[in-house]
Design goal:
Layout lengths: L2 H16 L7 H7 L12 H22 L5 H11 L2 H11 L10 H4 L3 H23 L1 H20 L7 H13 L4 E8 L6 E8 L2 E8 L2 H15 L10
Antiparallel strand pairs: 1-2, 2-3
Helix pairs in contact: 2-7, 3-4, 3-7, 4-8, 5-7, 7-8, 9-10
Length: 239
């Protein structure tokens, strides 16, 4: 093994140890952090496919087991935020995977932020795929719960990583040249426990009402519901 490859293997083992992964076959993880610009054939795309599918399954099962009163629609909304590219990017930052990714394309390593974010987010999925193949389903499931369950809590508190109001506004401005308008139509409840009802006006159409314990919460729920209704989602540029 060339010295350069030996040095990378050493760095990779140290990185995996830092995130509490004990590899049996390091080759899976080398593949998981290799972008297609590094190797057109042996890269992380197939592992990314596996990791994406397994991550979605684990989050779906977690929601089904832990939120017995949630509807199919509610669970779908939570899941879509938890496994979004933005959420994957946040997990990627927390585990520092960008420091170990192998890429030679300058579009990936410099300048283009959206491409960098997309690559880093995809690498989290490929890492999950590598863990599944190397250590098995239970080990990979523990890794997912460790890093993604807190995101479920954020979404449930209305603090999801996707800014639904910005998402809706950017979409409307880019496609129709207009902005949504939020209007409080009702405030109910005791002084210390108020509930705010908000409608959203988009051109001549009105949506709602949507309710929350604060104006901000009601508006975010409204925007998220409308985005979900029309299939508006955050996007990263793909390479």
């Amino acid at each position: 093994m060339p010295d350069k490859e030996k040095e990378f293997s050493k760095r990779l083992r140290a990185y995996l140890k830092s995130i509490s992964i004990r590899p049996r076959n390091l080759e899976f993880y080398k593949l998981a952090v290799s972008h297609k610009s590094y190797d057109a054939f042996d890269n992380f795309e197939r592992l990314e496919f596996l990791g994406d599918s397994f991550l979605g399954f684990c989050i779906t099962l977690y929601l089904y087991d832990n939120f017995s009163h949630a509807t199919e629609g509610q669970m779908s909304k939570i899941k879509s935020q938890v496994i979004s590219k933005q959420s994957l990017y946040e997990v990627a930052k927390s585990i520092g995977i960008s420091d170990i990714i192998r890429a030679q394309d300058k579009r990936v390593t410099r300048h283009n932020k959206s491409r960098i974010n997309a690559t880093i987010a995809n690498a989290v999925e490929s890492l999950v795929g590598a863990i599944v193949l190397d250590r098995g389903v239970r080990y990979a499931t523990r890794f997912i719960h460790q890093h993604f369950d807190p995101l479920v809590d954020l979404v449930l508190r209305g603090e999801g990583l996707i800014d639904s109001k910005s998402l809706l506004q950017n979409h409307l401005q880019s496609t129709r040249g207009i902005r949504p308008k939020y209007q409080i139509v009702e405030v109910s409840g005791a002084e210390h426990d108020k509930t705010y009802s908000v409608i959203v006006k988009i051109a001549k159409d009105s949506y709602g009402p949507y309710r929350g314990k604060s104006i901000k919460e009601a508006e975010k729920k409204a925007a998220l519901e409308i985005c979900s209704q029309y299939g508006i989602s955050e996007e990263f540029s793909q390479i």
